[in-house]
Prior knowledge:
The chain is mainly alpha-helical. It has a single domain, classed as Cobalamin adenosyltransferase-like (Hypothetical Protein Ta1238, Chain: A). Helices cover 58% and strands 6% of the residues. The protein has helices at residues 25-45, 53-73, 86-100, 116-141, 146-170; strands spanning 12-15, 18-21, 110-111, 175-176. The protein has a two-stranded antiparallel sheet with strand order 1-2. A two-stranded antiparallel sheet has the order 3-4. The radius of gyration is 18 Å and the shape is elongated. The mean pLDDT is 92.
Amino acid sequence: MKIYTRTGDEGKTGVIGGRIEKDDVRVEAYGTIDELNALIGEAMIRMNAQVYADLLTDLTEIQHELFDAGGDLAQVGKNRKYKVTRDMVTRLEELIDKYDAECPPIQRFILPGGSPVSAALHMCRVVARRAERCVVTLTREQETNDEVRRYLNRLSDFFFVAARVANVRAGVPDVEYKRGGQVFG
């Protein structure tokens, strides 16, 4: 199989059910999810396998789920078969609660940073938020799987908590925003 097909040279790309413009909001949405998936891989290579074994397992599953989400968004036409489900959203909520239990209570807003792993996970968080915004736009304009939007919303929360856990496990405090007062607790 050849990697290049030349079928996109005119600015269109193939999706499940047809061809659309490469700058279509649908392509932007699943392309942003692909970008997020690559950033997760970048974050994972920074992690010590012993210290982060559980998080590495969860992130690998999330990478597969993001591939499913991209596939869901890449479908046009009538015969759609979606993979992202409410159960995936619920599982993310359970992971958020599990990892949040490792973290100290939040007193102030948290700035991205601390340890290298935490900073990488914060990058994942902000790209997950951007992907969510793209999917919100897509769902306003075209029909698609609404569970992908919910999944991305929880996923950004997951990355926030995972970034905090990374700092805890590295013995590095979160970087607190100091120009405001205590806003939590």
